[in-house]
Known about the structure:
Blueprint: H1 2-18, H2 22-45, H3 50-61, H4 74-116
Helix pairs in contact: 1-4, 2-3, 2-4
Amino acid sequence: MIPFFILMRNMYHVLRILFRQDEQKAVMFSVAFLLAVGMFFYHGAEELSYLDALYFSVMTLTTVGYGDIHPVTPIGKIFTMGYVLLGIGVISALIVNFNRALKEFHASKDSAKQKKS
Length: 117
């Protein structure tokens, strides 16, 4: 249980580093915007419930794609092709920024250890 709390504390510090960056705020807004666009599109075009549409949007953007829900209309298939191409770039930027914040956290942690020695 203690390692879990240590992990959560470290994640809190990494998230604080992330949200100090203007670029990260823009990326998070882009992800939220893409999810909202996907949710409303799939709700209207594919006649999915809002929850199913959001679920499908998340699975599509993260490229998990369980296959339990898929587009059946031609417009849904065309939208999904563009949605995936755009979404992969935005999700990649999110992962890169998270990695950068994690690296910064560990560098500051190491420098704090060096100062104590």
